[in-house]
Amino acid sequence: MNEYLKYDEWNIIEDRFEQSTHEISESIFSIGNGYLGQRANFEENYSGPSLQGSYVAGVYFPDKTRVGWWKNGYPEYFAKVLNSTNWTGINILIDDEILDLATCEVSNFSRILNMKEGYLKRSFKAKLSSGKEIEINALRFISMVRDSIGAIKYSVKALNFSGKLKIIPYLDGDVMNTDSNYEEKFWDEISQKSEINSGYVLMKTKKLDFYISSFMQLSLYKNGIEVDFKSIPSEKEKYIDNTIEIDINENDEVCLYKYVSTTSSRYYKMDELISFTEKESLLAKKVGFFKLLEEQKLAWDEKWKESDIIIEGDVSAQQAIRFNIFQLNQTYNGKDAELNIGPKGFTGEKYGGSTYWDTEAYCLPFYLSTSHQEVSKNLLLYRYKQLSKAIENAEKLGFNNGAALYPMVTMNGEECHNEWEITFEEIHRNGAIAYAIYNYVNYTDDKAYLADYGLEVLIAISRFWAQRVNFSFEKNKYVMLGVTGPNEYENNVNNNWYTNRMASWTMEYTLEVLAYVEKTNNAKYSNLLSNVNFETSEKEKWTSIIDNMYYPYDENSKIFLQQDNYLDKEQILVKDLDPVHLPINQNWSWDRILRSCFIKQADVLQGLYTLEDCYDKDVIERNFDFYEPRTVHESSLSPCIHAVLAASLGKENKAYEMYLRTARLDLDSYNNDTEDGCHITSMAGTWIAVVQGFGGFRVKNNKVILNPFIPSHWTGFSFKILFRDSLLKISVTTKKVIIINEKDSPVELCVYGKDYTFTKEKELIVERA
Ligand code: BGC
User: Fold this and answer.
1) So which domain of life are we looking at (predicted)?
2) Known binding-site positions for substrate
3) Structural domains of the chain, count
């Protein structure tokens, strides 16, 4: 735990400079707009420890996988999100002495991430070894309105001297990833030019030929008056800069505005990139910093109108939930169906920026309720577009007839993960992808999606499950052998309850959707079935598997068993484990972890969360009471699921305890790993914990269900829900639930079990249960 940030409802505030926490701050204070992301690296030179990170969405490098023992079916490469051209750099020299926060005396340091308006601000005083003192004020943002634009206002004030100030804004394409094998560099320079007051670099990845152009424009003010200046352009390999020399006297303030447009060949042809970024950067300069900032505020205002959560009586919880919502909205904007959400978003290199099941299982609910339908639809289309690759992936593993296994980790549909027990065995991800289709259609009522895209994916996944099970004559049931469930602390298990259950659920749902599409869109139905060579016998096979699937169960305690023989393990509860052992993934050998009964993250409980409508409360409670005490929550994705289940079981304190473990995970660097980047996908889990957990929010049969309670540490809370054409604000006070529909469309609600139909005119007030 590292609690060095100040509590504030709308801002993340650091009020002193510590080299030891700087890399954590670089992650936390990251900014982005879904296309570009930037860690909070200092603009000026910094020789202390720092993880440089400027990311461009969808641009990656297929690095060689490094494994000792090659296994057939392993992927050829591991995708890496690329640290790209550093566009933020501005070096400062005072009479030729360089400003470097690692070596000078720093005071009055403040770094603020303004989440309401979407910018990062920093100020400090620095005393250089010459004794000269300066004050720096820097503000930057990545525009939510102009996809390619980042803008910086950087001012230097002379506090106690007169002398020569050099400001050197630059673009540096000569950057590295810290996770590159053998310190290899991933970028080649294609062209670059430094001109008076502007310049660009055009870089190309060494593999896959992604091109990125960054074009900068500058303007300069002295004591509030624009300076007609001429920078001195200079270039070296993969790098351009512009030196601005200016005489300053005591109390003079010089302010540089740097406008940079960065985009990639994912959106423009290689030969258009320079002219596009030049045009956009010039336009940004013409519009001017303050107008751009105004646009930014308005864009964030709109976002907050649809997604804010207000927590009363607990400023740390308030700050945390807003931070999570802010980071999620900076990471994915849903405009491009070829982009997705890496577990660290644009805040670090870990997990390669690739897509995991986290997207469907955790992030989708957030975007469904806080963004327009197209955003979640694009998350689904991402997988739809990768279906042929998922089929190829399954073929490599020996499956046939159009069976699809989606990758565990991917950028473009190809598997990028190479630990056999995960790559080949953590196949439950297929279930999450199928369930996401149900979730989306249930939420939006966009049933056309099923005929257009969903059914094809469902058929391919069901085909996979039907081939992945085998009939056990000993059990007289279908079994699924050699899998890894969501609990990665045990591998190669037989009959993981969650995986068997999701497999069977997928087949059930696919049959339901087949029947629906046949009835409602026979032409598309016939067309699709003939395209995928669908045989009626497949339906029979699936029905037989559904009816005869084996689910491990313990008659004594009446719980689902996580997998065969789970109870053979020595049964110890986490509370009885000496805390010196925790986290076990840092203290125990892998062998000891695998043999232990300790569970990394929700597994059976993940299934009961997902399919809660299929089970009554007693069943869920028995399983919760058994599994939660054995769960170490060493995945950040774990506590939120437990929070929702605990809340629905009326275990309010447990729900809150679980919520606390997710909410400030990064702000307090709970897992001591925030310097690698923020846990973006688990931030969606925090939202789930508040809205589905404390708010008791569900969508069933076209109706919004609410069963809210207030954690005892809060005095009230409210959240926003975009549900189809309505925008609901749900406020929970100690006595009442107040629901306002901010849009015209009527909505069906069920609050504490009682039905209401609700239009814009009314404010619905329900007494708290
Ligand atoms: C979790 C996985 C998750 C991955 C990326 C792992 O630690 O066990 O469930 O998909 O992290 O967030």
Assistant:
1) Bacteria
2) 357-358, 600-601
3) 1
